[in-house]
Every structure is written in structure tokens, then in C-alpha cells.
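Exercise 7. Given the components listed, write out the predicted structure of the assembled complex. Treat all entries as one system.
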Amino acid sequence: MVRSDARENRARILQAAREALAEDGSASMNQIAQRAGVGPGTLYRNFPTREALALAVYQDEVERITGSVPELLAGMPPLEALRHWTTDLVEAMRRKHGLGDALSPGAHQAMSEQSYGPVIAAITQLLDAGKKDGSIRTDADPGDFLQLTGALWRAASGPEDRSPRMLALILDGLRTQPQR
Amino acid sequence: MVRSDARENRARILQAAREALAEDGSASMNQIAQRAGVGPGTLYRNFPTREALALAVYQDEVERITGSVPELLAGMPPLEALRHWTTDLVEAMRRKHGLGDALSPGAHQAMSEQSYGPVIAAITQLLDAGKKDGSIRTDADPGDFLQLTGALWRAASGPEDRSPRMLALILDGLRTQPQR
DNA sequence: ACGTTATGCGGAGACCTCTCCGCTTACTTT
DNA sequence: AAAGTAAGCGGAGAGGTCTCCGCATAACGT
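Answer.
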């Protein structure tokens, strides 16, 4: 059974985090807890890491992005779809400050299936489409790709945005046929 | 003029950090300062970030790695040299806990030229050799490559080491001619 | 040798992350 | 309605990062 106050607290935390992160991307966990009117303990029990919180706050966005895969695949070849999708993802991560780190699974603990799963699933769909039509090498691994995406995010946050060039490089590595 | 006590303090900090990091890779900055017999302020004045300190401590190692480039290039084709070099780098970063983050320039501030430069220089040498003999595409950027190396490091720290597969992918992206 | 000066010291302290645990309280059972 | 119970709360606090600034003192001119 889920206690009613627990449900309300969770909602209030998400609301507070949404506001606080919108105002200041680097709002502290303490500030968010205070704003939500709960203790730090409650915040951390609901969201063990800052990343888990950020991911929950932006879950709509994550869903939007992961959900756009079929549409992309319908309208263009797999490799192009993958490029667009990844660009979208990186763009969203940059806009929503703090989301980026959430997608580096190896860094700390394995992310919860809940939030890490959909992203991997989306990548898997895209890669599989390319493997099926022969444009993407069959040994491409979704986890590897996500990991590299983390580097893209970091690159996009820098002064000069290297990410398009880096993405092109990665995609060329995924190809079966050279396109150069 | 450099004050003598300043010079000594810097040396003592490096010594203490070397020992402390050898014993426990996640030794706190405070612990290191205490061990060196200086205040936290002095530690942070000499090494603004944990990464700067780690890089200074392992500078020999960094020099060894960056210095091995000519030898590698003499003994094998550029792409192979690049693979070996990068594997070495990732391996060293994994062994010496805490070095890895130091090589992600975009993450926080631009790294000091002193420490970031040699690594970029080494990569530049390797890429240039490949560009010259036509095996590496001419638009390959050393900064991009370093950034991707950061992802490799993170990948190597995880439970399963994806880094060789990821490196292969990146190198295939750098190629001018397909090799598959 | 002796002031003068400004370089560098280092600890107090602001603020952070994250944990632990005694108390509160929503739900269940009778 | 009353009592039982365990889920959940939240604050105290341990330990961390990093800054600021009054004070000590090394280097220099005389």
C-alpha cells in the first residue's frame, strides 16, 4: 500500500524541482527539499541521486524523444533517423540543464530500469532498423552508443559545439558501407 | 619571485597526494591537505581542482604516455598506433583512480595549457601521421577525439569493459577507407 | 642589520551531499 | 471506535568542497 502523504510528497517534490531547476539549473538538493517543504531525507528516499530527480522531472520530454522513433524511421533511412534522434536528445539535454549526466550509466550505479530502459529501447529500435536493411553493422551495441552520447552532451556544453562533427564520426563508425 | 615556503609547500602537497591517492584513490582534498600539513586554502591555491592535482601527481605517467608516440609510429601504421596509444591511456586512467575526469576539458573550465596541452599534442601527432599517409580522414579533430576518450574511460570503469569495442567503432569512423 | 611590502598561509565558515534513526501517522484489523 | 503496526517522515549531523581574509613572514632596498 502506498500512503497518501507519500504520494503527495512525491508530487510536491516534483513540482518544486520543476520550478527550481527552471529558475536555476544548479539548484541544490537542499533547496529543492526546502522548497517542497520536506526534509532532505524524504527527497533522497524518493530520488536517490540528483540525476534520478532530473530524469523524473523531464520524463515527459524523455518520453517525447523516445516516442518519436517510429515516426522518424517512417520518414527517412535508419542512419538519418539515428542522427536526427541523437541531435534531438543532445539538444534537449543541453536545454534542460542537469539532464545530461543522468544518461551516463556506468559512472555511478546502474540506472533504474524505469528511466534508463526507455532510452536504451529507443536506441535499440534505431540500430535494429539499420541492421535489418544492412546500413548499420550488426555488432553495434546500444549501451556503447548511449555511452558515447554522454560525450556528445559534454561536447555540446563547451564553448564551441563540437557535437555535430563528433556525431558524424560516430555514425560513420556504425556504417557498413563507406559514404565518403 | 617565488617564495621558498611556497615551493616547499607545493612539493609537500604533491608528496602527500601521491601517497594518499596510492592508498585510497578517493582520498578527500581535506585529508590530503592535512597530510601535507597545510590548510585547505593552500591546497586549493596550488591546485584549483581535484583533477589538476591528480594530473600533477601522475605527470610522469602522462609524460610517459604522451612521449611514447614517436616509438609507436615508428613500429606500426598510424591507425594501429592510435589504437595502442589510446588503450594505454585508458588503461592508465583506470589504474590511477581519478585521472580520468581530468581529461574531460569541456566539463568544467578549460584545463590549464600546462597539462591539457601535451595530451592534445600527442593526439595531434597521431592523427597527422594518419592524415599524411591517407589512412585517416583529414577533418579529424584532436579535441573531438579526446572528448570521446573521456567516454571510453567511463565505459572502462563500468562492470563490463565496453571500451575496446567502442574504440574500434571510433577508429572505424576516423578511417578514410573501409576495413570491414 | 633593519624596516617595508606584498606574497602566501591556513583556519573559520558557508554551503553542499547523503545517512541514520526516533517519532509520527495513515491504514488495517477487530 | 480503538488499538496495532509498519511505512514514511524529517532533522541532526558527519564529512565534503571551496572561499575569504586577517596575519605571518620571505624577499628586497637601504
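Discussion: The interface with chain A takes residues 104-107, 110, 137, 139-141, 143-144, 147-148, 150-151, 154-155, 157-159, 162, 165-166, 169-174, 176-178, 180 of chain B (CB under 8 Å). Residues 4-47 of chain B form a domain with the Arc Repressor Mutant, subunit A fold (CATH 1.10.10.60).
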